[in-house]
Specification:
Elements: E1 11-16, H1 20-29, E2 35-41, H2 45-55, E3 59-61, H3 64-68, E4 75-78, H4 82-94, E5 98-102, H5 109-122, E6 126-129, H6 136-146, E7 153-161, H7 181-197, E8 202-209, E9 215-223, E10 229-235, E11 243-248, E12 251-256, E13 263-268, E14 274-277, H8 285-297, H9 308-325
Parallel strand pairs: 1-2, 1-4, 2-3, 4-5, 5-6, 7-10
Antiparallel strand pairs: 7-11, 8-9, 9-10, 11-12, 12-13, 13-14
């Protein structure tokens, strides 16, 4: 009988997409000892080969379907623009691959539900790549809240944004590519609030739109269980500070770069501030890779830190925000 303490064989990864997020993901993945990138897929052979050569990846596929069909791949990281997440994930699941799909899981809740149903039917692991959930600093925040360090949580605030060059054909501004601030960066504050508020009982939003009709800036107010409030904001037209605060009846927790934090400040009523530091091993992507490995070896189909039900709730919340601000994408109706 094999020794249970013997080293596990590496988990073999395929990368679907070759943009900046794929490059950052591979950097984080290579900090994980039992991870191996064995293949990459792109829309062209040339792009796939260039990425493979840059990152010393053995196999390059010039078609997404060829990567999905690669039986030497255990799990695929879907790193495409948002509008391709649904199709690419379904393709990989149907071919028998496990999938880590970059956030947002899908363009809307209907697509997300189809992806979850496919994972259930095929018995494959599926997780939304919401790296915030897996950062060690965030694990410590959750522990402190569970221990009552700041009393009862009453309000959560989170903002994120940057000034992006306007390009009507680019992925951030083109409706056909599911552009806009909300799906690109706004998903972070929505998911952050959901982590602490649970299911939203109310959502209100206002937006400033780009000339293409997508949201360039969004302000959101959400209500959660027990009347906890969330004040959230995102932008692709202004450098909004990347700050989040969790405020309770007995103190607060303040985070900068909170979407993948390396630390935070805890303020308890009547006490000096306490600083916590959790430097990344690489760039933060390594922790979601480690979570995927952990769940695959348990033969689980989803992660308790980012379960399917949570991804579906977030997708529904994003749909509600877009309905409130009047943003739809081609094919959705309006």
């Amino acid at each position: 009988m094999p020794d249970d303490t013997s080293p596990q064989p590496p988990v073999r990864w395929g990368i679907l997409g070759t943009g900046k997020i794929a490059q950052r993901f591979v950097t984080g993945l290579r900090a994980v000892d039992d991870a191996e990138v064995v293949a990459v897929g792109s829309r062209s052979e040339e792009t796939a080969r260039r990425f493979a050569d840059t990152w010393d990846i053995p196999r390059a596929h010039g078609d997404y379907a060829d990567l999905a069909a690669d039986t030497g791949v255990d799990v695929v990281y879907v790193a495409t623009p948002h509008n391709v997440h649904h199709r690419a994930t379904l393709m990989c699941l149907e071919a028998g691959r496990h999938v880590l799909c970059e956030k947002p899981l899908a363009v809307n809740a209907a697509e997300a539900a189809e992806m979850v149903d496919a994972a259930k039917r095929r018995g494959r692991f599926l997780m939304e790549g919401m790296w915030t959930r897996f950062a060690p600093a965030m694990a410590e925040v959750r522990k402190l809240l569970a221990d009552g360090a700041i009393g009862e949580v009453r309000m959560v605030t989170a903002t994120i944004g940057g000034r992006m060059d306007y390009d009507p054909q680019g992925r951030l501004f083109a409706p056909e590519l599911a552009g806009g601030a909300l799906l690109d960066v706004g998903v972070y504050p929505v998911a952050f609030a959901s982590m602490f508020l649970g299911e939203f009982t109310g959502i209100q939003a206002q937006a400033h739109k780009a000339p293409t009709g997508v949201d360039a800036q969004v302000a959101m107010s959400v209500t959660g269980r027990n009347g906890v409030l969330g004040v959230l904001g995102c932008s692709i037209e202004a450098p909004i500070p990347r700050r989040a605060d969790i405020v309770g009846t007995g103190g607060s927790i303040a985070l900068t770069d909170w979407f993948c934090p390396t630390g935070f400040v805890l303020r308890r009523a009547g006490a000096e501030p306490e600083e916590f530091s959790f430097p990344h091993r690489a760039n933060g992507f390594e922790y979601e890779v480690m979570e995927v490995h952990r769940r695959l070896r348990e033969q689980a189909l989803e992660s308790p830190l980012m379960p399917w039900a949570e991804s579906l709730r977030i997708a529904e919340a994003l749909d509600a925000v877009r309905a409130d601000i009047g943003v739809t994408y081609p094919g959705e109706g309006g």
